[in-house]
Design brief:
five-stranded mixed sheet; 7 helices; 22-stranded antiparallel barrel; mainly beta; about 900 residues; 45 strands
């Protein structure tokens, strides 16, 4: 059963829906006439600010033939949030996962970001990650004019996702009535303050220009955005897994059966992020028969950060010196280690540096032709993303060895898990770059590029006589060619010719304070400069364990569709919508290599290529019944798909043969995956009050026919690999051993699915709808409830954090709440936003660059904004000022291993304050 646990917001929403419905039906005929007259007067009123954005979004939702949610900018270059993801996460049924303090990836209706697709101006776009899900903080909110989230697809929606499709839209200049020139600036501060040479300040500058020329036949829009942002973070992390200890003094002093983590670290992360974005659109409409639109988008982000951290191995490993011993041990009621003193540990002081550069380029050219009642659209597009990273680490310890320590531990009390060492680690001259228990250092240089080319041709025709249910029909074809590849060079960072050394004073920053974790001060230094001066780093891709990390995935998708647009009447009820079918012909393939150590030197890297082709047929139906008193009931049926993760389609594998048994085995990707497939049904009721307000209730059900699991399967065909192995190793096999052609393969595979269901309540209400004395006040609120019977088998690589038993769907929060209260009057604006979600399983990238899963505690994030816009009758006409605070409650990001008394990461990003000015000419 769907758990619709009551809380204040859901009760309030249900009450609002009931109240507004009752009040409408209580109106007399005279009241109705009066309201119609008022509505006619309102048509002449210019709506600005918060209400303008809300009413534009309501219009999009109301007029759509599908079930959608929408965001519209209040004005050019003026979406209210720092990140477009923050705005999207406020929509009903959507939730964000924070990365580095910013909302970065979006879950739709309880499914992970893997199940949604993102479009830019109706075209699928590339991503800078290993997968296809978009990192939304790459898109400056100032360059986006609106977002439409399609919760139900139609046959003409190309690039649709299974959980939803998010379409980001930029400005269309011919839609503007007058020239617009807008500039804005923001100054920002993070509450965690300065550390390690990085100040807590940031800034944002934006410029927008929209104009029309040549008797309004040419339109031009240009937007430029530049931002500089400080990266500040406090974190305590515990090693995974939290394992149940065996006997025989496995961790001396801790009883057998206790759940225990083998290490802890505390870090202060500091850094800087810079992003530049440019949007340009050129439109040409010489007559009503032809409109040509050329749009381009470019964004480049550069960011770096250093985690200055102290780390302690608690797993009875200190370099081979005296054994670990724990005293004063306290174990919680759930059997989890809570506190004690760990003796004979050898702490490290580490510098972990990351530098990342991302670039996204996108261009599209759309031409629309009208030949009488026939409309033809031709669209070509190209987009490319590139990501380059540099990861470096330095490891320092006290010398002479062994400088063992006793550390007091307390994982159960306070804001962060605590550890307090007995020695002083604040003096940089006493800490040395040496071959520590974790070596002297390690580094990586990942590179990803993703390129997508597309072409679309579609036409709309009037229906023949006799088809009274339909207004017209659309037919079209779309071709998309995508190629994504990844390389990842890695290697040890070894000491240079000078040998063991401390890091000189000229490379030192001011020490950072780990007092939030009880650990005191530690040095902070310039990690890349220390590597350059004291160390040798020669990354390579040729080591045996690195060969499978280089791969290319190619996809060619030809989509054809037929959609009939419904416009009819059943009895006295107008009905609109569409019915159609989409056929996706997919050709997917991957190229990579695997390592066979039994081959002669020079022949150990063996290429591998695999893939498949298939066709999916996706029927869909959307109906909107327009009932009296501005009530709309929507019903939708669809078959939906989501393409597999790109990194799961890689042909990479690590292969070997057990010569004692003659059994081959491997692990890797699977280029033969089928997509996720679901049959979906949606039902919603919406009550509108013109474009001023609405209340809605919706339910949905998705029957996932298949799911993708990473698991070990027997009987996999290794004929190609075994034949190559036998050519080099056959004569050395033990007598009587015959190597099988099939064996076990650990990889993503298609398996059984299950059901996902949910309910959503939404209200967008200006409060003067009820009482004129509340003019200017309003609320926008939603509550979403999700449930699923799908239990997935965890990827073997993630069992250390989520366990080996089946887990709930990643990204699924059973409850998601969003609430916005605002006041707007005579240029004065106040806005308070809260978004809240229950616990979920989130996806993060670990140090190995691999996807891993974590249980994430539910979040409650509160933002506020106050502003003033000068009116037309003032000398400052066009000027607006605002003050904004993000994460006012300093909501933490916390992950855990199965139960909340077994913490993994506890992260604080602090509050962010912004002061800004906008000027519109």
């Amino acid at each position: 059963m769907l758990n619709t646990k009551r809380n204040l917001l859901s009760v309030a929403l249900a009450s609002a829906i009931t109240l507004t419905t009752v009040s409408v039906h209580a109106q007399t005929a005279d009241d109705t006439a009066k309201k119609k007259a008022q509505a006619t007067d309102l048509d002449t009123v210019t709506v600005t600010g918060i209400r303008r954005g809300i009413e534009s979004a309501i219009s999009v939702k109301r007029d759509s033939s599908s079930i959608v949610e929408a965001i519209s900018a209040e004005d050019i270059g003026k979406l209210p949030d720092v990140s477009i993801a923050e705005s999207i996460a406020r929509l009903p049924g959507l939730a964000a996962q924070r990365v580095a303090g910013r909302a970065q990836v979006i879950s739709v209706r309880g499914l992970s970001p893997d199940f949604a697709t993102t479009l830019l101006n109706g075209r699928e776009v590339v991503s800078t990650g290993d997968n296809r899900s978009v990192e939304f903080d790459q898109y400056p909110s100032e360059l986006i004019s609106g977002v439409t989230v399609y919760k139900t697809p139609d046959a003409g929606l190309v690039g649709q996702g299974l959980s939803g499709t998010l379409d980001l839209q930029t400005v269309r200049p011919l839609s503007y009535n007058e020239r617009v020139i807008a500039v804005s600036g923001r100054y920002q501060k993070n509450s965690l303050g300065e550390a390690a040479g990085e100040d807590p300040y940031g800034s944002r500058l934006n410029f927008s220009y929209v104009d029309k020329f040549a008797d309004n036949t040419i339109g031009l829009a240009i937007g430029v955005s530049h931002s500089e942002m400080s990266k500040q973070e406090n974190q305590v992390g515990l090693y995974e897994p939290w394992q149940e200890l065996g006997g025989d003094g496995w961790r001396p002093g801790v009883a057998a059966g206790t759940y225990y983590s083998d290490g802890i670290k505390a870090l202060r992360r500091t850094g800087h992020a810079k992003r530049d974005g440019v949007m340009a659109t050129l439109q040409f409409r010489p007559n009503n028969s032809w409109t040509s639109t050329l749009d381009a988008f470019y964004t480049k982000a550069k960011e770096y950060d250093t985690a200055n951290q102290m780390e302690i191995h608690l797993g009875d490993y200190n370099g081979g010196y005296d054994r670990l011993n724990l005293t004063d041990v306290v174990v919680g009621s759930n059997g989890s280690f809570e506190s004690g003193v760990a003796h004979n540990v050898y702490p490290l002081v580490r510098g972990m540096y990351n530098n990342r550069e991302d670039t996204i380029k996108a261009i599209g050219w759309n031409n629309e032709f009208n030949f009488g009642d026939v409309r033809v659209v031709a669209d070509v597009s190209w987009s490319k993303a590139e990501r380059d990273e540099l990861n470096l680490e330095n490891n320092l310890q006290l010398l002479p060895a062994p400088a063992l320590d006793s550390v007091a531990l307390n994982f159960a009390g306070g804001k962060f898990p605590q550890f307090t060492p007995g020695r002083d680690y604040s003096d940089y001259s006493k800490l040395f770059l040496t071959n520590t228990i974790y070596g002297s250092g390690y580094g990586k240089t990942p590179h990803v590029d993703d390129e997508l080319k597309g072409f679309k041709l579609a036409a709309t025709f009037p229906v023949p006589e006799g088809f009274n249910w339909f207004s017209d029909f659309d037919i079209g074809v779309n071709y998309a060619d995508r190629s994504k590849n990844k390389t990842q060079a890695e290697g040890n960072i070894n000491l240079g010719a000078q040998g063991i050394t401390s890091i000189a004073a000229d490379l030192q920053y001011k020490p950072v304070n780990l007092g939030f974790a009880g650990a005191g001060y530690i040095p902070a230094w310039n990690v890349p400069a220390a590597v350059g001066r004291y160390m040798v780093f020669n990354p390579t891709t040729t080591e045996s364990y690195l060969i499978p990390k280089q791969w290319t995935v190619d996809e060619e998708i030809t989509t054809t569709f037929l959609r009939a647009n419904i416009s009819t009447q059943i009895g006295s009820v107008p009905v609109r919508g569409n019915i159609g079918i989409q056929a996706q012909h997919v050709r997917q393939s991957s190229n990579s290599n695997y390592w066979d150590g039994g081959q002669p030197v020079g022949s150990q890297v063996i290429p591998i290529k695999d893939g498949k082709s298939y066709i999916d047929f996706l029927p869909s139906l959307n109906l909107a019944f327009e009932l009296p008193a501005e009530n709309t009931v929507r019903f939708a049926l669809a078959r939906q798909v989501a393409r597999p993760r790109v990194d799961e389609l890689r042909a990479s594998m690590e292969f070997g043969v057990d010569t004692n048994k003659g059994e081959p085995g491997a692990s890797g990707g699977n280029p033969n995956l089928d997509p996720w497939v679901a049959n979906a049904v949606d039902l919603s009721w919406e009550k509108y009050f013109g474009n001023k307000a609405y209340v809605a209730a919706a339910v949905f059900y998705k029957d996932l026919k298949t799911y993708i699991y990473t698991e070990k399967r027997d009987g996999y065909d290794f004929t190609q690999q075994v034949d190559a192995w036998l050519l080099a190793n056959g004569i050395s096999l033990p007598p009587g051993i015959v190597v099988d052609k099939t064996g076990t393969y650990t990889a993503p595979f298609n398996g059984n699915g299950g059901s996902l269901r949910g309910a959503e309540l939404t209200a967008s209400l200006p409060l003067d709808l009820f009482f004129d004395g509340l003019r200017g006040f309003g609320v926008v609120a939603s509550a979403s409830f999700n449930d699923s019977d799908i239990k997935i088998k965890p990827d073997p690589a993630t069992t250390s954090s989520v366990g080996s038993e089946p887990i709930m769907l990643p990204g699924l929060s059973k409850r998601v709440y969003n609430f916005t209260a605002y006041y707007e009057n005579s240029g004065f604006e106040v806005r308070l936003n809260q978004r809240k979600r229950s616990d979920f399983i989130g996806e993060i990238g670990n140090f190995n660059g691999a996807r891993t899963l974590r249980y994430v505690k539910g979040e409650d994030v509160l933002d506020a904004q106050v502003g003033y816009s000068f009116g037309d009758g003032t000398m400052f006409k066009g000027l607006s000022l605002f003050l904004q605070a993000s994460n006012l409650t300093n909501s933490m990001y916390e992950t855990y291993a199965g139960t909340k008394d077994r913490p993994l990461e506890t992260v604080e990003w602090g509050r962010s304050y912004q002061v800004g000015v906008n000027y519109k000419f």
